[in-house]
Design a protein that fits this description.
The protein has helices at about 10-20, 55-60, 90-95, 115-120, 135-140, 140-145, 180-190, 200-205, 235-240, 240-245, 260-265, 280-290, 300-310, 335-345, and strands spanning about 35-40, 40-45, 70-75, 100-105, 125-130, 155-160, 195, 220-225, 245-250, 265-270, 295-300, 315-320, 350-355, 360-365. Strands 10-9-8-7-11-6-12-14-13 form a nine-stranded mixed sheet. A five-stranded mixed sheet has the order 2-1-3-4-5, with helices on both faces. Strand 9, helix 11 and strand 10 form a beta-alpha-beta unit. By secondary structure, the protein is an alpha/beta fold. The protein contains 14 helices and 14 strands.
């Protein structure tokens, strides 16, 4: 592939875009991009495989029968130093005779965290670290949080009418348009798990899959927050749990129906109650972190979303808003009022605004 721009940031941006394609698909590992350049031209590239293997460096190197002596590797994350399910990528680059390695950011994983760089330096490899670092860190934010012992990245998807109402009016099935809903499916595809409350399941009976053409295999784990374990056994999520993977968090396991859930392939997990009578959201996130989930998408109604916001557990909010319709006949619920107030608080700053035909997507980031 011939590209005339010879700037390091150009090739690293290309690698970062590659890594972005597999966010949400790489299991407990971060999605990494690797671009190999010789004589100022891209000669190969790789991205972390589905489930976390193979690593990006291995994929990029394996495409070449012969590696030119002047080859430079652009990698979005420090090459790993240890041998686990995959070989050491630092050692692979050395064995391949790569003359220079450009790295966007160090690996925050305590197992590595500079060790890959040390190995490369010890073998005389020319190194440059910190190119496009902010963009690369954004790609792996959830992974960085989790390996640091914090919660996974938590993002919220909200769809509302112009007045902030999340319930469709006039018996409409949707608030936003087809383009907004397609963008919402893209969000599902790059998260490890999607979380809803039990009321959403009872009212909408959702599948929570990614239904864009060619992206059915990118559907995330399903999670229901259900205090009293009242999720209908005939709901689509329960009936398809063996295929689509479902976790239910509840306050008590002493329930006659629990065996029916488990027979359907549902994992039921007990969580303590908080003083307000809701399940402890921090315990839920701790458990999801222990399952190696890096990115969580909250998609389950204004009450659940506002609870996560109220507990300062949210990193980003994707707010899809119809610019034409108001939800006539449906007054704002308390959950809607709280959600609107919290999103517009000083805790969040708008990062981007995207026009989606007659809808608008506003992306808010924690300040």
């Amino acid at each position: 592939m011939e590209l005339s721009n010879h700037d390091d940031s150009f090739f690293m941006n290309y690698a970062i875009r590659l890594a972005s394609r597999h966010i949400g698909l790489t299991g407990e590992n971060p999605s990494v991009g690797c671009v190999l350049v010789s004589n100022k031209k891209i000669i190969s590239y790789g991205v972390t495989g589905v489930g976390g293997s193979p690593h990006a460096e291995f994929e990029a190197l394996s495409k070449l029968k012969k590696i030119p002596e002047d080859t430079i590797a652009y990698v979005t994350l420090e090459p790993c130093s240890h041998i686990g399910k995959n070989p050491s990528c630092a050692s692979l680059l050395i064995t391949a005779g790569i003359s220079k390695v450009v790295i966007a950011t160090k690996d925050p994983n305590p197992i590595i965290n500079g060790e890959g760089i040390k190995i490369l330096k010890s073998q005389g490899v020319d190194l440059k670290v910190g190119v496009c670092e902010d963009l690369a860190k954004e790609n792996i934010f959830g992974f960085s949080q989790r390996v640091a012992g914090l919660y996974p990245e938590v993002n919220i998807k909200v769809a509302s009418s112009l007045d902030g109402n999340t319930i469709p009016g006039n018996n409409d099935p949707w608030i936003t348009n087809n383009l907004s809903r397609s963008y919402g499916h893209v969000l599902r595809s790059n998260h490890d798990a999607i979380v809803v409350g039990v009321n959403t399941v009872k009212i909408d009976d959702p599948d929570l899959n990614c239904r864009l053409p060619g992206m059915n295999d990118r559907s995330p784990y399903k999670v229901i927050i259900d205090t009293n374990l009242s999720t209908p056994l005939d709901s689509s999520l329960v009936k398809n749990a063996k295929k689509n993977r479902l976790i239910i968090y509840t306050k008590i396991l002493k329930n006659n129906n629990i065996i029916d859930y488990e027979n359907n392939g549902v994992e039921v997990i007990q969580v303590e109650l908080e003083g307000n009578g809701f399940l402890n959201l921090r315990m839920i996130l701790d458990n999801l972190s222990s399952k190696k989930f890096n990115r969580i998408l909250i998609e389950g109604g204004s009450t659940l979303s506002s609870s996560f916001l109220h507990n300062n557990l949210v990193n980003s909010v994707y707010w899809f808003k119809s610019s034409e319709k108001k939800a006539e006949g449906n007054p704002l619920t308390n959950g809607d009022k709280n959600l609107n107030k919290l999103i517009k608080s000083s805790n969040f700053k708008i990062k981007d605004s995207i026009s989606l035909m007659n809808d608008k997507l506003e992306i808010f980031k924690r300040a």
